[in-house]
Write the structure tokens for this entry.
Amino acid sequence: MPFSKYGKEHDEAKQVWAISRKEFLHIIRDPRSLGMAIAIPMILLVLFGYALTLDVDSVPIVVWDQNESEMSREFISRFTGSRYFSLKAQVSNYRDIERAIDSGKAFAALIIPTDFDRRINSGRRVSTQLIVDGSDSNTATITIGYVDTVAFNYSSDLVIRQIERIGGSHGISNPVDLRPRAWFNADLESKNSIVPGLIAVIMMVIAALLTSLTVAREWERGTMEQLISTPVSGSELIFGKLFPYFAIGMFDVLIAVLMGEFLFQVPLRGSAGLLFAMAAIFLTGALSLGIVISILARTQLLASQLAMVVTFLPSFLLSGFVYAIDNMPQAIQVMTYFIPATYFVTLLKGIYLKGVGLEVLILEAVLLTLFGIVMVILANVGFNKKLE
């Protein structure tokens, strides 16, 4: 009996191994699936490891020093000597501050009043104004905290000097009073920066996923050959496939704008026409990307996996939607230049929250248009080559 039991277990193990061996061979014969299985964990580890950070370093800041005294220059040096700030320019009026923040050259502006040194020397509190870009509520909140810490430390040093000089504290305990103000999002509500960014991420993922799956489904069902046999060119076939999803996508943008306005109370401050024009360009590129993905993956499973890796992860992590690009390592920052959602997120926040137009967003608009053109060309060339 023991021998019989051992023989039965041995046969079961052989059967399991035979099935496993067959599955291993199947995996090896499908290098794309094997590559995805190995590459996805590595890509996730790199992206999450480097991009997933809430730390804020080297915040670009401009300063308007109306006092121009030794004391005000020392106060400014506390920022330039910190790794948390990067002084971009000294400005001389509010218009310069507005241009710097609108264009993204600066994230914050520090305004030192004309009586800065006089009030401190006379033992009175002096108010300094801090303006931050509220379109990124998380970074704005952290930046206010950093500046408040610098101002507090500077105030503490002033009090210590006063005690050492006169042997007692007869002045005010906190001479520098910081008055923060957030532009474009006064209450620093996260929904105001999240809603525009979400529109970009959702459009990118859904558009690429839908087209990649619908074309892959044609290959799987064998109906693509029937379409090819019809008297239409490859380009006509592509545009015929894309147009329904383009119409649905533009309708989705309209619904998203209305929901943002009435459900989340996130008003559209800029041009609706410009927003929809940029959305049309972005959507065309994203849909064409789906065609390119379907050329590489002729099964729906592989197409969906590729679409998620190529669209969702980069758009969510590396577009500036959640995590500030300036805080990422230099190599990762270079990668963000090749992610179209990066430019669309900037465009949406600029149009939605700042109310600016092409005079400020022209670079992002040009690069987004270039993405759309390149994707359409790649989809046409790749699809026609596949048909041949």
Q: What stands out?
A: The chain has a mean pLDDT of 83. The longest strand covers residues 126-133.
